[in-house]
Model the fold of this input.
Amino acid sequence: MAPTRPQTEQEKFGRHRPLTDRDAHEINRIEELSYDLKVREVMASRIITTSPDVPVSSVLDLLRANRISGVPVVAEANLLGVISLEDVVRALQKNELAMPVRNYMTTQLVTVNTFDSIMKAIRAFTENGLGRLPVIDEHHKLAGIITKGDINRGILLAVERDYKEEEVRRYRASHLFEDIISDRTTLVLRYNIKVGDFNHGGNASSHIKRALLRLGADQQLARRCGIAAYEAEMNLIIHTTSGGILKLEVEPHRISLITTDDGPGIADTQKAQQPGFSTATDQVREMGFGAGMGLVNIQRCVDKMELDSSPGKGTKLTMRINVPPKTINSKKG
Amino acid sequence: MNLQTIVDQLNLTVLTEMHDFSNITTQGGYASDLLSCVMAGAKSGNIWITLQAHLNIVAVASMLDVSAVIITENAQPDEATITKANEQGVILLSTSKFSYEICGRLWEMNLR
Done:
């Protein structure tokens, strides 16, 4: 398919940009940023101010020249008040434009500190219906001014920064197979799984899923591998004598997941693959494991599964997933 | 259907960090306490109804990208489970009702 419009970045890279878990929770990230970002990072620090002793008419010129709707009134860097267009209009109505600013400025001020989170500023905006807030530093001097626009810009920049970091990681990872030349390149990730370690159950498979997304796998492929890896990982945690190894091998055309352990081994590998057959203890079943569906699930997710086991020796489970051409970047395709 | 509507209408307690969930879309649901069945049956974007409240539900929910987990009959996940759920962006909700009733209510709300 040759697109007629200019190619997007995804199309240029010959793949759809996979959606990560984090993309799905982007909205939460924005909320997080609202707490992480400080007012200092987004405020405007080059500010226009006026003095309390100049006439109101000069403020009108200042507002007009700078296309703003209010300015802080400052004497020796101390914030005395704010004079806005509304205040100027009041003076105009009374024909008192020649009066000093201090007569018309608002002195009951809502301010935020440089070290506050921008969430505090957002609250101040919504609670008071204000358009701008003066920012005070730790010495109680005026340090800047913050508007809703500054906050939007700050969040957008931070999100973009995040996004670029992830893009760079993903770009580097997805070019692995192009940048490193060999007759056959294989990326091997190895995870040591401890027996009975339910607290970390699923960690390795979650890392595997993320690694595959970064390598350019689409959501569907990463999910299939993730589910197979999860079931295999849990088998090592539940059924082995002393844990085992979960290995991921990525090649441009194929993904392999291999678990090995040193016991106790499976007496009847055919029976072990029957839906509903399980040797899990009652305690493990209470946690929702031992449904006897693990190997069945794996089989459903992978293209080829081999279970090799003998009692007393150990078990090797090999799972192969074919990668559709061009999913994981490779010059050979 | 957005998740906030479900939280409001079923009066669910949010166990993980409080957020406005209006932007999270839920499509259909899946109910089971057997994790392998969930792995096989739940689709991305589903809401998952279960009695299980231990740490391993977070790994399952995160792997499958479910929109949220409703833990029924007041089963209480421990602190480690909630912390891990927050880390992984998994939303845990709680109710005193039975799974059966929650499923029925969601079905009535046309979450199918």
In short: Chain A has two domains: 27-153, 184-322. Chain A touches chain B at residues 21-22, 24-25, 27-28, 31, 198-199, 201-203, 205-206, 209, 219, 223, 226-227, 230-231, 234, 287-289, 291-294, 296-297, 300 (CB under 8 Å). The first helix of chain A runs from residue 9 to 12.
